[in-house]
Design goal:
Layout: H1 4-17, H2 36-52, E1 62-64, E2 71-72, E3 85-86, E4 91-93, E5 113-116, E6 140-143, E7 175-185, E8 190-194, E9 202-206, E10 212-214, E11 226-233, E12 237-241, E13 252-257, E14 259-261, H3 263-274, E15 279-284, E16 288-292, E17 296-303, E18 306-308, H4 313-316
Antiparallel strand pairs: 1-4, 2-3, 5-15, 6-7, 7-8, 7-9, 9-17, 10-16, 11-12, 11-15, 12-13, 13-17, 14-16, 17-18
Length: 320
C-alpha cells in the first residue's frame, strides 16, 4: 500500500525547503495514477504550512510559542548543510470569549414589583406584532410639523399623565423632531400608510445622554402607590399603561423610544412574558426605569387605544 504519512511529510519538507517535488518516487507503481493522491498531498501540505509559516508580529490575541528548530534554507546537496538557515516562529491563535455587556447599567437601588392580571386573557396577536403595544411593529416616519406646544379646544382630563415628569426634575418640552406612526393592516400584519390625523403621533424630546427617565405622574393608580403596568419592553423601548389591564384599549398608554431600559426591569418583563403574562411589572409615579441613550427621547401617547398628538398643551403639558 501507499504510505500516505511518508508522502505528507515529504510534501511539507519540500515546500519548506523549496526543493522540487521528489515525492512521487514514494508512491507505489499501482497507486501513481490514483486521483486522490495529488489532492491529499496538496491539502495536507497546505494545512501544515499554514501552521508553520512565519508571522511578522504578534497582534493582540496572538501568543508566540517556542520556536521550532531551524530548517535548512536549501537542499542538502552532497550531504553538506548550507550555512544560511531560516528560523520560523509559531503563534497560537486563541478565540476571544467574552460575556456581552448589558446595553446600560442597572438603576442604582431600583427594585421592581409585579402585579397579577385579574382579568387575564391570552393575546390573539403576539404582543411583538401588536402595533398598539409595540410601537416598533408599525414603525414611523419623519414629518415636517411645528416643533412646539399647540393649543386645542375640547374636553380635558385633569388626571391625564403629564409628560414633564419623564425627567428627574420636571421641565418644559424642547421638541427636536416629529413623526407619523404608520397605520396597520391587521389581516396581513404589516404597516401601511402613515396615520394622517393627528398630524404628529410621535415627538422627540431633547434629553441629556445618560439622564434617568421616570414614570410621568397622573391622577390614577393601579395599586396603592403604583401607576403603570409595563405592557412591553425591549432594550431601547418600553410601553407603559395606566390601567391594570394587559391591553392599551382602555385608559392612557405611553410609548417611549430610543431609551436604555434598566436590564433588571427588562429581564423581569421577559421572564413574565415567557411565563404567559399572568403577571407584569408595575411602576410607581416618578420611578426611574431607564436612561436616555442619546440627546433625545421619543414619546407617543394613546387614549383608549388611539394615538394622540403629544404636543397638545392642555392634555400633556398643563403647566407650560
Amino acid at each position: 500500500m501507499c504510505n500516505y504519512e511518508i508522502l505528507c511529510v515529504c510534501a511539507v519538507k519540500n515546500a519548506l525547503l523549496d526543493i522540487p517535488n521528489t515525492c512521487s518516487k514514494l508512491i507505489p507503481g499501482n497507486a501513481k495514477n490514483h486521483k486522490a493522491i495529488p489532492f491529499l498531498l496538496t491539502l495536507t501540505a497546505g494545512l501544515l504550512l499554514a501552521m508553520v509559516l512565519p508571522a511578522q508580529g504578534a497582534a493582540p490575541g496572538e501568543y508566540p510559542l517556542a520556536a521550532p528548530p531551524t530548517v535548512p534554507d536549501a537542499s542538502d546537496a552532497g550531504g553538506m548543510l548550507p550555512t544560511n538557515t531560516r528560523t520560523y516562529t509559531w503563534f497560537l491563535y486563541l478565540p476571544l470569549i467574552s460575556k456581552p455587556e448589558p446595553a446600560c447599567p442597572p438603576i442604582p437601588g431600583a427594585g421592581y414589583a409585579t402585579m397579577l392580571i385579574l382579568d387575564w386573557q391570552p393575546h390573539q396577536v403576539p404582543v411583538e406584532l401588536n402595533p398598539n403595544i409595540n410601537l416598533g411593529a408599525p414603525g414611523y416616519t419623519p414629518t415636517t410639523a411645528y416643533l412646539g406646544l399647540i393649543d386645542m379646544g375640547g374636553d380635558t382630563d385633569p388626571n391625564a399623565p403629564q409628560l414633564d415628569g419623564l425627567f428627574s426634575t420636571p421641565r418644559g418640552p424642547v421638541f427636536t423632531a416629529a413623526y407619523q406612526v404608520y397605520d396597520w393592516d391587521w389581516e396581513n400584519r404589516r404597516p401601511t400608510q402613515p396615520i394622517p390625523q393627528p398630524p404628529v403621533t410621535l415627538i422627540d424630546l431633547a434629553a441629556t445622554p445618560g439622564e434617568t427617565i421616570h414614570v410621568p405622574d397622573s391622577g390614577y393608580e393601579i395599586r396603592p402607590g403604583y401607576e403603570v403596568l409595563v405592557l412591553y419592553a425591549e432594550e431601547q423601548r418600553i410601553t407603559l399603561h395606566y390601567t391594570d389591564q394587559d391591553t392599551s384599549a382602555w385608559g392612557y398608554t405611553i410609548h417611549l423610544e430610543d431609551i436604555c431600559v434598566d436590564p433588571n426591569l427588562l429581564a423581569l418583563y421577559q421572564t413574565l412574558h415567557q411565563e404567559g403574562r399572568h403577571e407584569l411589572p408595575m411602576l410607581r409615579s416618578g420611578q426611574a426605569f431607564a436612561y436616555a441613550r442619546a440627546n433625545r427621547v421619543g414619546v407617543a401617547v394613546r387614549d383608549t387605544g388611539a394615538l394622540m398628538d403629544p404636543r397638545v398643551r392642555k392634555d400633556w403639558w398643563k403647566n407650560y
